[in-house]
Amino acid sequence: MQLGLEGRTALVTGGSKGIGFACAKALLAEGCRVAIVSRSKENVDRACSTLGDARGFCADLTSAAEAASLVDRVQAELGDIDILVNSAGAARRTPPDQLTPESWRAAMDAKFFSYINVIDPLIKRMAARRRGVVVNIIGNGGKVASPIHLPGGSANAALMLATAGLATAYAEAGIRAVGINPGLTDTERVAGGMEADAATKGISVEEALKQGVARIPMGRMAKPEEIADFVAFLASDRAGYLTGVNVTMDGAQSPTIV
């Protein structure tokens, strides 16, 4: 898209699969130096073999210490990080009668803290340089409650608030922060969610997927690449006045003004 991102350094968490992988690919195509991170070395190696020039790192981002170490390692190898794209972690979808306090805590670790643990050390460095963009891939479950996604939806809602709040807090320092809430997207992660939905409703996974797509006015799931193209735009100076917002991309499934 020729967005003027050549030579910038981007860190993409969850970059070995799904939307994160598509984001890494899009940013590489725009001329960025890209680092991806996953807990699985196998997944990182597989992704890097396809992406080519991306650097791969392994870390458990639910650990604040590992996340801070990751930021140090990426900066040491690739230089100052200009763009952070968070797409790591997913809370397990669970029927409400099977929830426990531990389920809620695990969801916050998996989604909320896996983002915050990277954002916290990195956004402070960005602020010191007065340059940087944070794009959080969140999810509309934080706005529209789903019975099988209550802990994960709560983590998403917390991330939306954190995104808006951090954007406000660091705007004067030249930092932008934006959230994206994808709807159903054609990834392995959504396939897993369909299994939980099917179990709750007592239907097949195929029927659950059919019903899910039927609720989308556009009549199809999003492609990961469509989300990634928007991420690349948001990371660029062309979106230089866009910050503190959470944008829904769900094919008009949630036609709200809030």
Description:
The chain is of the alpha/beta class. Helix content is 48%, strand content 14%. The protein is built from eight helices and seven strands; from the N terminus they run βαβαβαβαβαβαααβ. It has helices spanning 18-29, 41-51, 64-78, 101-129, 150-170, 188-201, 205-214, 224-235, and strands at residues 9-13, 33-38, 55-58, 83-86, 132-137, 175-182, 246-249. A seven-stranded parallel β-sheet has the order 3-2-1-4-5-6-7, with helices on both faces. Helix 4 (101-129) links the parallel strand 4 and strand 5. Helix 1 (18-29) crosses helix 8, helix 4 (101-129) packs parallel to helix 5 and helix 6 (188-201) packs across helix 7. The protein starts with 8 loop residues before the first strand and ends in a 9-residue tail after the last strand. The model has no long low-confidence stretch (mean pLDDT 92).
